[in-house]
Amino acid sequence: MFKCISRLRPALLPTFYAPNRRHLPLGLVRNMDTSTTTTTTTTGTASGSQPQFKNSLSKEKSPYLLQHAANPVNWYPWGEEAFQKAKEEDKIIFLSVGYSTCHWCHVMERESFENKEIGDLLNKHFVSIKVDREERPDVDRVYMTFIQATSGGGGWPMSVWLTPDLKPLIGGTYFAPTDRFGRPGFATILQRIASQWTEKKDDMKQRSMAIMEALLKNTAVKQTDLKVAIGQEAIETCYRQMSQRYDSQYGGFGDAPKFPQPVNFNFMFRYHDLKRTTKRSQEINQSLSEGAAASSADDGDENQALSMCLHTLKTMAKRGMNDHLGLGFHRYSTDRYWHVPHFEKMLYDQAQLAVSYMDAYQLSKDDSLADVARDILNYVDRDLHDQAGGFYSAEDADSFPSHDSKDKKEGAFCVWEESELNSLLSSETLASKPSITLADIFNYHYGVNKDGNVDFDQDPHGELKGQNVLIIRGNLAKTADHLGIDEESTATALYKAKDILFQARLQRPRPHLDDKMITAWNGLMLSAYARAGQVLRDDRFTQIAVRAAEFIKKELYDENTNTLFRTAYKADAKATERPTLISGFTDDYAFLIRGLLDLYEACFDEELIKWAEELQQTQDKLFWDDSDGGAGYFSVAANDPNILLRLKEDQDGAEPSPNSVSALNLIQLSDYLDHEPYREMARALLNTFHERLQKIPIALPEMMCAVMNLEKPSTQIFICGSNDSSDTKKLLDVVHAHFIPNKILVVTDGKNNEYLNTKLKILSTLEKKEGKATAYVCENYTCNLPVNSPVDLDKHLAQSMG
Prior knowledge:
- The protein is an alpha+beta fold.
- It contains 27 helices and 20 strands.
- Among the domains are: 56-219, Glutaredoxin (3-Layer(aba) Sandwich); 250-385, no CATH class; 713-802, 3-Layer(aba) Sandwich (Glutaredoxin).
- The chain is 45% helix and 9% strand.
- The strands form seven sheets. The chain has a five-stranded mixed beta sheet with strand order 1-3-2-4-5.
- The two termini are 39 Å apart.
């Protein structure tokens, strides 16, 4: 469907492990055999055995809902059947929201929802609804807003009690099954709420109406009457707030628990870029104007912003959040040292972190950062990639320690006892030094201790007692020096050890795989692979991105209405086979549009731009606030009467908010299509969040990237040449070697741009010079002289970037 130029390079084979490959013999880089992978059911029920109970969730496709299909609770999915039952029987709705790789969701299921006595209480007094928050973020968002407003916090599992007309009454997160430490348990809470509904029903209904009125009032977001540009002051405030939270010893922004939050890297990298180009511009102006004032740019801030990110990313890659055997990153670190992770792996983390490591590589030219990006992408391709082209959502943190275990433990798939490592690695020694075994090298390099390397305060539940989380505190040179061997022998030995251990780990029960494919997260992953094809110069990654785009268009898109669906599922022939379709939300549109724009800059197939524009038009129609004084995007469309709040997301966290990504998309589309109304929409959107951006911009670092893009006009790079010619590819390689966050990039030969020729009049004026592919770089509304030498183009981009 979509066509991409080929770099005619040998594709790197996916590997289970990517050390500094410059030290490795080529024969060790190979495909990984996963034929011995063992699967287990999520609840621990033996495969093929008949469950004692069966509820309405058995008809669903969400892995999370199916996990609860055999609970003694008479669960219903979110929908009219449950709503009608609650109204007819005049019962409170118990709404439980979670996701399939949520550790405490599993705990609450095991303790309460698999308990028949608690099941009987729920079935007698309530109508129980189970929601997968990743399938239905609209439902989750409404009631999480209520939880946060009333308790100051939130999380999953989320437990909320609603009136039959869906208004919230009371809520919380995890509840222990029985009374503990003076706190009522889940069973006690159920009995109290049921009693209150019987005795004080009218009071509870009035309270629920007051709650909804307060939520509606407090969540309304309009444009400010002060049409003040959000500029340099807010940018500097965001940098200052973020740098004040920086951990100079271990990296990261904030204390434990530490989340990677790639949106922070996005801001800091772009802040670095803005400051260095501003500084360069001032230096040029100063040289042209004798006696000009000294540069006002802070010489240190831009370099400090970069160094904070590089230190954080390098430390994360060495520590326990990085799966040193299986690749990919775990969700977050429970401590400030990046040592003991929460072991689940989320697709959106892999997508965003891959981009962060590629950005860091472009800015630093440090090959080790490119290696980490490759590792992430190879992990996703191997373990989260459906054969149809889409990407699965997550791998669980919990798994069975052995095949005969009855209870799961967090991290069981990933951690090691020293004795097990010694058993697997002690039989092989170094030819050059027979007294040293693979175990000696591996255990020293990865901080393995006899009694485990996890302190009690890092493991309050004792699940990791005696276990080792693999972590590098030194480096290859330090390990080699400690053992008195050379670095090449050390690297080769570590690779062999990892190969042995990875194959051994495959014999363990694997964590549960959430094989739900979410459009928004697939859009993020599409961006990562598209960027990798450019930055890492590997056509294999580009082709994975193309297949992902084709998958989304085939399985998650309705060409008749130009609308998206939220989810597809493993082995589905078509998303429409779901009993009830879930329409796409704002993030599905925004993240996919970003992915398509990134893929265009790897393929230069203008059908990608056309589809992105069509999706933007649909997003505007469904989600844009066109009320008086309104602007920005609601997270949900206006056509669902069961969603009581239409909210505009205004926080960049584990994922960027769809409003932040949309602002960036609108700016880029305005440049590609020469369509100024899109830029004005971006300004109006930013103005809607004006107060938050001015006071606490650290809450919206991705949106601050859009602010910076408006501050600095985009760089327009046009390459006149044939898509598949070697001279065009050489110029593109130069462009992709530079970090240019605010740009458009077009390859044109006069034939392949029928659509863009109607939008960008400049394309018809471009021509090759001396019969060679020629680059035209336009900045600050001025085009520089054309160049057809990669060396000259590199010099120009290096100078213009500061």
